[in-house]
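For the sake of transparency, this paper describes our internal protein records without simplification. Because each token names a local backbone shape, the row as a whole describes the fold. One such record is reproduced below, unchanged from the form in which we store it.
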Amino acid sequence: MVKSLSALLFIREGERLAEGSFWFLAAREEGLFGSGQGLIMEWMKVKKRIAVTDFLMWLIGAVILVFIIGGSIATISEGKYSARHWFDFIVFGLAQGSVYALIAMGYTMVYGILRMINFAHSEVFMSGPYTAYFFAAYFHSTGFLDRFPIFSLLVIFLVSMSTSTLIAVLLERVAYRPLRNAPRLIPLITAIGASFFLQYTYRGLFGSGFQAYPVIKMLEGQILLGELRILRFHAVVIIAAALVMLGLYLFVQRTKMGKAIRAVSEDKEAASLMGIDMDRMIVTTFVIGGMAAGAAGVLYAIMYKQVHFFMGFIPGIKAFTAAVLGGIGNIPGAMLGGIFLGLIESIGPSLFLDGWGIIAPYQLKDAIAFTVLVLVLIFRPTGILGERLTVKKA
């Protein structure tokens, strides 16, 4: 009776560890439990740790890595691109990545405090520069933009940031606050619905065509650095984005309100018990994200010289990729992820693909960006600077 009970307990434990494994069933059928019990148990533990899907994912990653290294070696050995070309790629990547980083800050801050992905943030990014376009067009038609370019730019930035902030606050108050205690899927669906609502509201009000942003003569031309040249508007975009990111980072890290926001992000209940107004901190987070998105929108319009109702979709997805890449919920990670993604998107097509003889490698820049997202989600879901969430925070 005792032996039967021991055998039964052993079999139950083996079944729990193997979780229905074919190898356990075969071992039981062949009567291998006995002198080789320890060996079989060790084998089942190894199989439990190393799943077939893990092996396949690492295999896919290795294939992609070999493809990248092979293409890079072939491209460099051909000598098709000079040092000046690579410098231009880096500068453009920094400018583009700076815009992604500003947008990503809104995604990562909202996720940090509400544990939700605000997919309507791409339309927060779109609404600011689109509204500011009408001021820019008026200034350009009257000649005011050329006579007073700095003051005009300040007004354009102010209008864009104010509009994006207003949209972000309205989203929080109307769409998200009533659903704060709802299951996590409901706010996510609401965010997607709000995104479509804002897109087609702007389409209905201002049309579906592209609006050409006025050219600012002060930002045309190049800056010479020895034999290297930087487009003036690229330099302005990089410097302006860096200043905005630095200001927002210092606000969150050094001010009392920033510390309160981080406290609410860490533990809402404890922060509320300490007297912190949770609703105020959440609204402030949306304000910061809206301001950053509005500034990023103007910089994007300066770079690409146009706005339209759908302009926020692709940059928004790229910025979300950057936030995940850096570590969602981590502000320095969002900045780093944005810069890294911009550089990969700028350098990657020429460096990785040109050596393989691909005719138009730059047309695959979006594929490279989203491949980076997939690889990060597979191999490091927490991101570059992210950390694993506890069950309570997740």
In short: Confidence is low (pLDDT under 50) at residues 1-27, 389-394. The first strand starts at residue 211 and ends at 212. Residues 83-114 form the longest helix (32 residues).
